Amino acid sequence: GENVEQHPSTLSVQEGDSAVIKCTYSDSASNYFPWYKQELGKRPQLIIDIRSNVGEKKDQRIAVTLNKTAKHFSLHITETQPEDSAVYFCALESPNAGGTSYGKLTFGQGTILTVHP
Amino acid sequence: NAGVTQTPKFRILKIGQSMTLQCAQDMNHNYMYWYRQDPGMGLKLIYYSVGAGITDKGEVPNGYNVSRSTTEDFPLRLELAAPSQTSVYFCASSYSSGPRDRGYGYTFGSGTRLTVV
Known about the structure:
The complex is a heterodimer of chains A (117) and B (117). By secondary structure, chain A is mostly beta strands. Chain A contains no helices and eleven strands. In chain A, the strands form two sheets. In chain A, strands 2, 4, 5, 9, 10 and 11 form a six-stranded mixed β-sheet that branches. A five-stranded antiparallel β-sheet of chain A has the order 1-3-8-7-6, with no helix packed on it. In chain A, strand 4 (32-38) and strand 5 form a beta hairpin. Chain A starts with a strand and ends with a strand. Chain B is 0% helix and 48% strand. Chain B has no helices and eleven strands. Chain B has strands spanning 4-7, 10-13, 19-25, 31-37, 43-51, 54-57, 64-66, 76-78, 87-94, 107-108, 112-116. In chain B, the strands form two sheets. In chain B, strands 2, 4, 5, 6, 9, 10 and 11 form a seven-stranded mixed β-sheet that branches. In chain B, strand 4 and strand 5 form a beta hairpin. The radius of gyration of chain B is 14 Å and the shape is globular. Mean pLDDT of chain B is 91; it is low at 98-102. Classes of the chains: A mainly beta (117), B mainly beta (117). At the A-B interface, strand 5, strand 9 and strand 10 of A face strand 4 and strand 5 of B.
């Protein structure tokens, strides 16, 4: 099946700094790449996603970049705030052998982001 | 509009016992999923369904069964609980069609924390 490697596993930054999390994958058939934020004891929540027909997407302080040739995509958070502290997961859609994914996702292992005031 | 509702929130099972985790959504989503999340790990797909009467295995289906008799409900059954099934279980639903830039827009339930002793 699809494999997703997410780095780093932990990331500690000072408030106001930028944070970057990177994921690499192996299946070139994937065309949808979402990022989820999970606060302690809560459900994952979609924060941004990108499709393979664009290289970058931005939403206020959050951006995602995609390099399909190199098979990696990254989450960028600028001007970090303490409330950004959470676990962040990358994911990508997992097509069946026939190329249909039915929305199935393969998740990375997660990055624990800590933003110090 | 409650979104995705999971019950129970917590459960302790003895080895060999059975139980059903309930999941219901009121958004008329065709696609529904069950994921498990082990401590410090990402989510792994157990089973998924693309509509009433249609289910298929995900990455880690062993020890579980599902059914989808209605669009709204997607219960997950554990027949003979084992310690390896100690995990947090998330149900999710998503769109099956719509604007391509909508993404799959997963809506997660609040999770069921299961401990098998």
